[in-house]
Amino acid sequence: MAGDNSGAAFISGFLLGGIVGAAVGILIAPKAGSETRAELREQGEALRLRAEELAAQLRDRVRPAVEPVSEKAAPVVKRVAATVGREPAMPESEAALGPEGAAGETSVSDIGAQQA
Is 10:46 a contact under the CB 8 Å cutoff? Predict the structure, then answer.
């Protein structure tokens, strides 16, 4: 629905509007080439810093929703990767669980048996 991605749409629109506005403002301003280049560098740096700030804010807002899903999916991803012959990197928090994982987890073979 329209409200589901309003944060991402706002950030995208904000960044695009800032870039377009800066470019138009610089291009129509009567300045020497060296002054224009210096201003472009300054505005580019300001936009980069603002984009980094917005990305950090977005990460902070999304992290609480992503971490639990990531933690629950990690053992299944490891088992699937092991089944196909690739072992993914194991974070320290999961290394403490050992090769069997946490109690009560559904294995890939359990999922296959349930579908059969």
Answer: no
Confidence of residue 89 (pLDDT cuts 50, 70, 90): low
The one-letter amino acid code at 27 reads L
Residue 75: closest CA among 51, 95, 45, 49: 95
> Model-level pTM?
0.39
CA distances from 29 to 34, 41, 43 (A): 13, 15, 14
> Taking the domains of the chain in order of start, what are their residue ranges?
6-115
Kindly calculate the radius of gyration of the chain based on its CA atoms and give it in whole angstroms: 24
Position with higher pLDDT, 38 vs 36: 38
How many whole angstroms separate alpha carbon 94 and alpha carbon 78?
10
> Going by C-beta distance under 8 Å and a sequence separation of 6 or more, which residues neighbour residue 61?
7
CA distance 26 to 83: 56
What number of other Cβ atoms are within 10 A of residue 7's Cβ? 14
H or E element: which one contains 66?
helix 33-83
